[in-house]
Amino acid sequence: MDKIRAKKANIAVVGDLMIDHYIWGSCERISPEAPVQVLEVKKESNVLGGAGNVINNLIALDSQVSVYTVLGDDANATLTEALLNEAGADCHAVIRQHERVTTKKSRVIASNQQIIRFDDESREDISLNSQHALLTDLQKNIFSYDAVLLSDYGKGVLTPNLTRDIISLANAHNKPVLVDPKGADYSKYTGATLLTPNKKEASLATGIELDNSEALEEAGYKLKNEFSLTYSIITLSEEGIAIFNDEMRIIPTVAREVYDVTGAGDTVLAALGIALASGLDINQACEFANKAAAIVVAKVGSATATLNEIEEYEHSLNKGQAESKIKDFAQIERISKRLRAQGRKVIFTNGCFDILHRGHATYLQKAKEMGDFLIVGLNSDESIRRLKGSSRPVNDLEDRAFLLAALESVDYVVPFTEDTPYELIKRVLPDVLVKGADYEGKKVVGSDIAKEVKLISFVEGKSTSSLIEKISGSTC
User: Fold this and answer.
1) Bridge-partner residues for 178, per DSSP?
2) Following DSSP, what letter does each residue of 308-324 receive, concatenated?
3) Cis peptide leading into 393, omega within 30 of 0?
4) Taking every annotated instance into account, which residue ranges of this chain make up the domain Cytidyltransferase-like (predicted)?
5) What residues form the annotated binding site?
6) Tens digit of pLDDT for each residue in 149-194?
7) DSSP character at residue 192
8) Domains plus CATH for the chain?
9) Pick the catalytic residue: 16, 20, 152, 266?
C-alpha cells in the first residue's frame, strides 16, 4: 500500500469509452395509444462506462490517467469529454472521428427494475488515420507512463493492428501492458504482460469447459503459453483470482458481503495495473486487486475502491496479525485523518509498556471503551533510557510493540523517539487523550490538542517496577 501511495503511478488507458445513461421513473398507467406502460420520468443520470469505469477506478486509487480513445464528432462525445474532465483524467489523446457515433447505452428503470435498454453506437474499426494518431501520441509519451491498460469492449478502438503495435511499443520500453480482453480470438493480445478474462471468457477463448479445478488449470496455462503472456490469470468473480506460475494458486476474495459484481472486472484491471506499475510482484498485485474487488462487490452498481477503503479493509482482515497494527508517523496521520472524516472517535494514550502485565491490559481495555479506535504511542528504547536509566527497558522496542499490537483492545501502535509524544499527538489529533490517575492535578502533554483528557486508575499492586523487584529478589 505504501509503495502505491508513494508512486502515484501514471497510467495510459486505451480502449472503448461510452456513456451509461439511466432514466429513472415509475409506471402507474397504461398508454391509451397502445398496450404499453407509461413511464413517468423522475430523473436522468450519465456516467462513464466501458473503459471509463477503469479510468474512474484508477483515479479513485490516486493514479494519474491519460485517456487514448476515439469518439464520434457529436453531442455525446462532448458529454464524454466533460465527464472525463470532471473525473480528473488527461484527455489530450481523445480523438474525434467524423461520422462515427459515440457509444451511449440508455437504460430505462422503473421501480428498481430495468425494463429496456437501447444503444446508440458505432462498432466498426476506427479509421487508419485515427489508429495512427493514437499510436503516434503514445509513442511520444510512452516514457512518462508506468503502465498501459487496454480496455477492449469490442467497439472498434482496439483494432488487431493497433493492439499489436501498442503491446510491442510497451514491451520495447519495459512498460507493463495489461488487457481486459473481448471475444474468442485473443491472438491480437499476444505478448501482453497479462490478460484478465473471467471464467466464461477464458472458456470461450480456450474452448475448455471450466467446470472443475483441472480444467481451470489447463485453461490458465493454455492462455499463458499460446499468447506468450508474462503472467497468466483468470478472475473468478467473488471467489478471487487464479494465478498460473510454477503451479496454480487461487487467491480468494474475502468479501464481507456481495451485492453486485457489476464492474468488478474493471476494478481488478485497474488495481493490477497500478500495483504492477508501483513495483509490487504479481502475487502482491493480485492480493491488492482482490481487496479492491471485495470492496466493490459490496456496493451496488459500477463502483470504485479507494486506497483508504482498502487500508481499512486490510485492517479489518488483519486484526489478529500484530505486525500489521504497528505504524509510523506518516501512516498514523493518514489513518487518523480518515477515521475523523468517517466520524470515528479516536482515543490516544502512550507509555513505555516495558513488561506487559495485567495492569496494562486493564488500563488499555478501559481506554478503548471510551471510543472507536485506540492508538498507543510507544516510547523508543532510547527515550526510556533517558527517562528511567540505563537498566531499562527490559524488553526492546520490537518486542514491546508486538505484544501491545497483539492485544484486542489496541488498534494501532506507533513508536516515538522523543521524551514526550507531543509531536505524535499533533499528527493523531485525538478526540480523547487518556493518562493514568497519577496525572491528577498535573499538566498532561497534548491536552492542548485533544478535545478532552480522561484519567484512568491503575490496578493496585500491578506495575512494571514491582515486577522487576519481584524478579530481582527471587532465587532459583
Assistant:
1) 149, 194
2) HHHHHHHHHH-TT-GGG
3) yes
4) 348-442
5) 198-201
6) 999 999 999 999 999 999 999 999 999 999 999 999 999 999 999 9
7) -
8) 2-317 (3.40.1190.20), 322-472 (3.40.50.620)
9) 266
